[in-house]
Amino acid sequence: MENLLNKFVDGAKEAAAEAGEKLGAIKDAASEKFAEVSAQAEEMAAKAKAELAEEAAEKAAMIAETKEKIAAHEGGALGFLTDKAKELAGEAKEEFNEAVEEGKSFWDKAKDYVSGDDDKK
Predict the structure, then answer these.
(1) Of residues 23 and 118, which shows the higher confidence score?
(2) So what's the pLDDT on residue 86?
């Protein structure tokens, strides 16, 4: 019986040793994966930071350019804004006129279709 008990204890020791080795391997693999993921995260963060810095520099340049335009304008800030508003209003008017022409064209085609003139062409 004692012999059986010793075999059982030895088997348990061997199983514990194997489990310890497997646990060590799992810990090593997890550490490697964590290091890999951490490196990727740091790389992504650095890339995002660089992109944001570049975007911020572009915005700062746009602001500086606009400030220069305002300062150089005869009418100052109010004159600059007035001219810009006129420019935008002109663009809006052009787009509106184009839309009106497209609408007229659509209704002319619809009238032709309904009257049967479209088939003659």
Answers:
(1) 23
(2) 95
Q: How far apart are CA 81 and CA 68, in angstroms?
A: 13
Q: Are 69 and 80 in contact (CB under 8 A)?
A: yes
Q: Which domain holds residue 4?
A: 1-72
pTM of the predicted model as reported, rounded to 2 decimal places: 0.45
Q: Residue 92 — pLDDT band, cuts 50, 70, 90? A: very high
Domain boundary among 32, 56, 72: 72
Q: Map tokens 């500086």 to a residue.
A: 64
Count of CA atoms in the C-beta half-sphere (13 A) of 57: 6
Structure tokens at 90: 């002109």
Three-state SS letters, 83-100: HHHHHHHHHHHHHHHHHH
Q: Is 75 helix (H, G, I), strand (E, B) or coil?
A: coil
Residue 73 DSSP symbol: S
83 and 62: one domain?
A: no
